[in-house]
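re: ur question from yesterday

yeah so i grabbed the chain u mentioned. its 424 aa long if i counted rite. heres the sequnce exactly as i have it in my notes:
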Amino acid sequence: MRQTQCTMAIILTLLMLVAVFQFTNVSFANFFSDPGSDLPRIYIKSDGSVEPATAPIERIGNLYKLKEDITMKTIVIQRDNIVLDGSHHLIEGNKSWMGLATFFGDAGNNGIIITGRNNINITNLYIERFTTGIRISNSSYINIFGNSFKEETAVFDTPAGITIEVSSHVLIENNIFTSINGPAIFCDGANITIRGNTLIGIFDSIDGSIAIKGSSNIITDNKIETVFPSIRLSEANANIIARNHIEGGISLISSSNNMIFGNNLTSIRLIFSSNNTIHGNCMTSNIGLDTIELDQGTANNTFYGNSFPANCSIRINDAGTNFWDNGTMGNYWTDYNGTDSNGDGIGDSPYIILGVKWDNAVGGDVSFVAGYDNFPLMEPYNIEHDAIISPQTESSLALLVAAAVVVVVVISAGFPIYFKKHKH
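ran it thru and got these structure tokens back, copy pasting raw so excuse formatting
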């Protein structure tokens, strides 16, 4: 009898271990799938109704307004063309579940879930203590503006304030993110604009404060007071990072044809990234960080119009050829001691780029000539009046060429008529 009981106990234990193992694997494999109704849910249904009817949400046509704070519940939006106005109320998750995400997926601790929707506006909400504040997938024309995302207790893990997958035309504007142990914004999509947000106390040394995967996205005019990396692009092409105030840096991994333009920041790191344009940025000193780091597989990137601090560190590890001017304009180097005899603002002699790299033979860094800035600036470049020009794709270039041909044909056809009328 005792032996049978022991055998049954062992079998039950093994079954439980297998179940836990399978649950963990499924959670990681389907991070963006519906995590299950671990928190009770409030539905804005496709027919416009709110379920349960007792939920503190008032409907006025396509406007849904919170009448009071909501605690320990998830709002699921199943209707298109609506506005969810928090009226400055709080939606709060299950604090005791935070920290489980590292091991068990996101445990269903989500604030708002938007899947397969169009034209949704979310504003005036305080969103706190969720594993993910807002999750968006397979959706378009989603606007998230004027909200606050916060987790006060840094002990717990918050993977993201906003998570976006396979979505397009999403606007994240004028939100505040504070004290989040993970990326404030994690995006995988296209035509996503992240503008005018404030990020303070975001802690994620891998993904950064804003993590982007996808193309044709714009990150502009944000204030990011976080550690490196502040913005991380991975497998991201033809994006724009412009006019941000960043206390940390920008990291590009396997990303090409991006424009990094007019930012204030401390460092830029490129890995397996090519054909990027780094223009008009103001680089400031940060002890312990390289100002520029170009790692393996990085080539054909162009730096011009940037301002570099004195004795900035440029680390180059197995990188290819990169360019330190655009053929007419270089960068402003604080320690450049050349002259400008004709007063055109360009130094008469090139600036020698001294790079550093690790040398196993000496067991430390060694200096070497990494390139030349052939048109060094005598004064910092004024970026204020420059327009942001999106990196061009082949299709858009083809359209420009086609448009140019049309213009030439029209003008050519019009010239005989013009001269006939004005020949006298």
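noticed a couple things. The longest strand covers residues 160-173. also The mean pLDDT is 81.
anyway ttyl
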